[in-house]
Every structure is written in structure tokens, then in C-alpha cells.
Amino acid sequence: MTTHLIEGLAVEVEGDGPAIVCVHGLGGTSNTWTPLLPALRGRRIVRIDLPGSGRSASIAGELSIGSMADAVEAVCRHLDVTAAVFLGHSMGTIVCQHVATRNPSLVTGLALFGPLLCPPDAGRPGILARADKSATGGIAALQEIADAIVAAATSRETRETRPAVLALVRESVMRQTPHGYAQSCAALAGAQAAPIDQIKVPTLLVTGDQDGVAPPAAVDAMAGRIEGSRMVVLAGCGHWTPFEKPLECARELDQFLRPAN
């Protein structure tokens, strides 16, 4: 594995073969995808820390889903990736949808975990309040946010029986800088839906039966708009699908990618 710094972004690249580009969600990093790496063998895996997330530098001014998509496409150009399957989690699924609809020749398939079109209008003020809390409260506020996410965005089974997964989620959020996390929250709060009816590539949609961010009913509605897509609901799973159900996610991903191998 080689770590690159591309236009301020930390990017991990490993393997050879057809490209697969991995885009994490809010509070995530390239390590969101570590549990799924066994399913990606035989491919060139590109894992990006989005602007202001993980080890990547923040940008000057406001961050948006559009600028995140710009950054992902810039990484692809730098690495000579002209066609790839895109993996996304949570906010990263919105980024992937925008890339797929505005640059369709780049995207040969989509595997989206905890997918959403954009936040519901009723949820946007809460995301903005989280941005303000992180921006003004520093590390102490980010710790409170991380603890709240662990309590609200994981399944009951995960909270009761898998303390290591809770630690992973908490550490992922705490790995952010308060300023970078606030920028990402503001970007998510302002996100608009991509025209997903235009997506014509194989698409896998995976959510948890206890995912309050990407509830099964909403994901089913997405599946109805993406021609030929397949939806999977994982039992006993919240929103952090790759951490909470790594074996099940890897199995679905392996099945999804196999026809293209």
C-alpha cells in the first residue's frame, strides 16, 4: 500500500487490476473500508480521505458536496483512473451519485452502504447545529458528538455485544479536526439530490434494518429509481454498515463485483 498526498488529500492506493474508488461518509476516513478489503482483492483500490477529513487538509472557504466530487475526480485524474467501480458510505454515497451523474464515463458501478439522496429537510438544522458545536467547541465538543453518534447510529445488537465496533466508530469521528468536521457537516446540511434516474450502471444498495439515517423504506425508494439496482437490508445493523457487519458487507460486495472480474 502506498499513501499519496494529492492536492492536499491523503489517498491510499494498493493492488492491481480494475480500479475501485472508495469514498467515506461524515466522520469517516479511508479506514471505513479496511474491513471490506478482502472482497476487493484483484483490484486497484483507491481510498480517499475527503477534504478536511482524516489526514486530508481542509479547504479555504465553504465545503460542499460538489467540491467533494471535484476532489474525487481530481484524484482519479492524477492517478489515471478513467473508469472505476465507486464505493460510498453515508455522505460518501451522495458524492458518488453526483460523480456518477455528472461524469458517467468514469463510473462503471456503484456499491453504496447506508445510502441516501440528501438529508431530509427536517434533519438539516440539526446537522448545522452539529457543525456549529464542532466549530466552536473544539475537541471536547467533538468527543460529545462522537459519543452521541455511537449511541444513535449503531444497532442495539452492536451496542450490547460488540464494544470494539463502538470504539472504531468513536475513534473514526474523533480522528477528525473540529474545523474539518464542521465543514463536512455544513456540506452535508446543504446537500442536494443527484438525478439518480440517470444512473445506468450496476448498483448495489446496502442498509441496516436499524439504520435511522438510511432507513430501508427510503433506500427502497432509491432502488426504485435506479434501473437494475439491487437492495440488501442487513439484520441487526445500524448506519455504520462496514464496521457493524463487515462479513455480510464483504459477501454482498464480492457477489456484486464477481461478474466484472
TrEMBL record:
SUPFAM superfamilies according to UniProt: alpha/beta-Hydrolases
A Pfam family it matches: Abhydrolase_1
Keywords on record: Hydrolase
Presence of keyword Lyase: no
Secretion signal, residue range per the UniProt entry: none
Record-annotated AB hydrolase-1 domain positions: 18-246
One of the record's GO molecular function terms: hydrolase activity
InterPro entries, per database record: AB_hydrolase_1 (IPR000073), AB_hydrolase_fold (IPR029058), AB_hydrolase_sf (IPR050266)
Domain of life assignment: Bacteria
Protein name: Alpha/beta fold hydrolase
Organism: Telluria mixta
